[in-house]
Design a protein that fits this description.
sigma factor, mainly alpha, Rna Polymerase Sigma Factor, Chain: A, 2 strands, rod-shaped, 2 domains, RNA_pol_sigma-70-like, two-stranded antiparallel sheet, Arc Repressor Mutant, subunit A
């Protein structure tokens, strides 16, 4: 390995710092892998993990599942490095095919079929709840302007109750009118405003 390749270090698969193989040939990497040394595997992982993860993520959308498939792919590479034939293509191409095929196998498997049929109840509940729940912003829909069309007594009571936070009892005390009258005027005002929204 030349000095330029040794100058950069990256975390390997087993947590040790290993040199990144940028300038080395596939044949040297394959020879080291066939020797089954931990350093060669760490170097392989450091050099190719992110690229193989990208290949897997093009097939499988879940990053968590893709990372599991990546681990399985490296185990397959480790176990089947003797099957690699340099005459048929580059090492990365062979590993990318293993990664892609592992991802496709996952999608065809029983676990994926079961998980895709069973949605998470929380996400479904949130989706349904959001589709049927409406929150009106009174500034946007013009409630204050619509209240302006009501008689002054109704307008004053609605303003106190809905915009200033008074209770019906407090409005009754503040305006010196019976509580029943406050309730009646609110009910009539709401009934009149409802016709604008139905």
């Amino acid at each position: 390995m030349n000095g330029a390749a040794n100058s950069k270090l990256q975390m390997g698969a087993i947590g040790e710092k290993v040199p990144i193989l940028r300038d080395s040939s596939d044949s040297r990497t394959v020879i080291e892998l066939k020797a089954k040394t931990e350093t060669s595997f760490s170097r392989l992982y450091a050099n190719y993990a992110s690229m193989l993860l990208g290949v897997i993520l093009k097939v499988v959308s879940s990053r968590e599942v893709a990372e599991d498939i990546l681990q399985e792919t490296f185990i397959k590479i480790w176990k089947s490095i003797d099957q690699y034939d340099p005459d048929k293509g580059r090492l990365f191409t062979w590993m990318a095919c293993l990664a892609r095929n592992s991802a496709i196998d996952y999608l065809r498997g029983k676990n994926f079929a079961k998980s895709s049929k069973n949605d998470d109840i929380e996400s479904v509940f949130t989706q349904v709840n959001n589709s049927y729940y409406f929150r009106y912003n009174t500034d946007v829909i013009g409630i204050k302007e619509l209240i302006g069309t009501l008689p002054d007594s109704q307008k004053q009571i609605l303003n106190l109750v809905y915009f200033q936070g008074y209770t019906q009892v407090e409005v009754s005390d503040k305006l010196h009118i019976p509580l029943g009258t406050v309730k009646s005027k609110i009910r009539l005002a709401v009934k009149e405003l409802r016709c604008y929204f139905l």
